[in-house]
Amino acid sequence: MIERLLPNRRSRIFLFFALAMTLLQLWAAWDPSAGEFAAGRLHLHVIAHFGSFALLALAWACGLPGVPIVAIALAVAAFGFAQEAVEVPGHAHPFEWHEALIDAAGALFGVLAARLLR
After folding, report:
1. What one-character DSSP code corresponds to residue 39?
2. In this structure, are residues 63 and 18 in contact, taking their beta carbons and an 8 Å threshold?
3. Helix (H, G, I), strand (E, B) or coil at 40
4. What is the pTM of this model?
5. What span, in angstroms and rounded, lies between the C-alpha atoms of 56 and 76?
6. Which are the contacts of 57, defined by CB distance < 8 A and separation ≥ 6?
7. Gap between the Cα atoms of 60 and 78, Å rounded
8. String of b and e for 80-104 (b: at least 16 CB within 10 Å)?
């Protein structure tokens, strides 16, 4: 079973980065200072959300090549919605639907890019 999910060293490296990026996303959701670099710059904020979730989905898809990309896209998109929910108490602002949708779009882009790499 493990060999099917993690067939080679490349997969294990991607999985390591996927886990590290997931933890980084959780930290960013909880720490209000995490988004200060893009404060007041909507285009940077959108690029940061889209890009980080595209890379996250790419890393998970390459790290778990035995898992269907649809499942990974849904899981990473759901994680984006969960991350936005964590930001509510962490950043003391209401739920930001537009950011959750940007995260989901990034997740879709990331798994499609991973599909091309496979």
Report:
1. T
2. yes
3. coil
4. 0.85
5. 7
6. 72, 73, 76, 106, 107, 108, 109, 110, 111, 114
7. 14
8. beebbeebeebbeeeebeebbebbb
Distance CA 97, CA 31 (A): 19
Question: Who's near 45: CB < 8 A, 6+ residues apart?
Answer: 35, 38, 99
User: For the chain, how many residues are written?
Assistant: 118
- pLDDT tens series, the chain, 118 aa: 555 555 688 888 999 999 999 999 988 888 877 666 555 555 677 888 899 999 999 999 999 988 999 999 999 999 999 999 988 887 778 888 999 999 999 999 999 999 998 7
State how far the Cα of 79 lies from the Cα of 110, in Å rounded to an integer. Answer: 14
